[in-house]
Amino acid sequence: MIGRHAKKNKNHAPVMGVVLAGLFAGSVALAPLDGGSGGSGGSAGPGPAKLSADRAERSASKEAEKAPSKPPDDCKPSEATDHGYSNGRIPTKELCPLPQDDEFLRADAAVAFYKLNVAYEERFGEQMCVRSSYRSYEKQEELYESMSPGMAARPGNSKHGIGVAVDFCDGVQNEDSPQFKWLEDNSEKYDWIHPDWAYSSPYEPWHWEFDIGQED
């Protein structure tokens, strides 16, 4: 700081004037670092109104980024099976996106899933953790070749390949978890089930299917 090492002088008034002048100059020079534009005429920083507006904008941005609670308008259950594609060959444009990134189901299963997801979030305070939903034929081949026998359906025969099955995570994969128990008690209200075979052959607590799709 200016004046810290100044020699003693009996004439205190001029020295004090120099010190005060230096402090004033320093405060002016530092002003742009406090949020101003950085130019010679920059403001000392945003006022309360500006800060409040910034907070409101950030809050609105976070709200906009929140995953949707309902499917897109063009996700129509009545058209779920009209595409004519075989197992694992359905383009994602013919499927409906889930709230979770890069996950898809056919329209009727997706609409039911959204309802299940909302109820789950109300119960546990967070959306469902989806590890796998629709699987292409190529993905089915990859899993069939890499997993233990019986742990993946033969390519072209997977419920994932017609967009009516989901593998869950974040607790549901454990049969004694509150998440799994809640799904057992509530999933059928939303047309989702844990199929009988998944209790033993092989045991897959994470695997759940859209009920109406069982005969497809």
Word description of this protein:
The structure is a single chain. The chain is α+β, with helices and mostly antiparallel strands and 216 residues long. The chain has a domain of 137 residues: 2-Layer Sandwich (Muramoyl-pentapeptide Carboxypeptidase, domain 2), CATH 3.30.1380.10. It contains 5 helices and 6 strands. The strands form 2 sheets. The protein has a 4-stranded antiparallel sheet with strand order 3-4-6-5. It has a two-stranded antiparallel ribbon with strand order 1-2. The protein is globular, with a radius of gyration of 31 Å. The N terminus is likely disordered.
Return the CATH topology of one domain.
Answer: Muramoyl-pentapeptide Carboxypeptidase, domain 2
Top CATH class of one domain: Alpha Beta
Poorly predicted runs of 5 or more residues: 1-43, 59-64
> Per DSSP, what share of the residues sits in E-state strands of 2 or more residues?
5-15%
Number of strands: 6
Helix count?
Answer: 5
Average pLDDT level: 79
Q: What is the makeup of the main sheet?
A: 4 strands, antiparallel
What is the global morphology?
globular
The CATH architecture name of one domain reads 2-Layer Sandwich
State the share of residues found in helices, binned by percent.
Answer: 25-40%
Order of helices and strands: HHEEHEHEHEE
Rg, rounded, reads 31 Å
Placed side by side, the strands forming the largest sheet appear as 3-4-6-5
Distance between the termini: 81 Å
Summing up helix and strand content along with how strands pair, one would put the structural category as alpha+beta
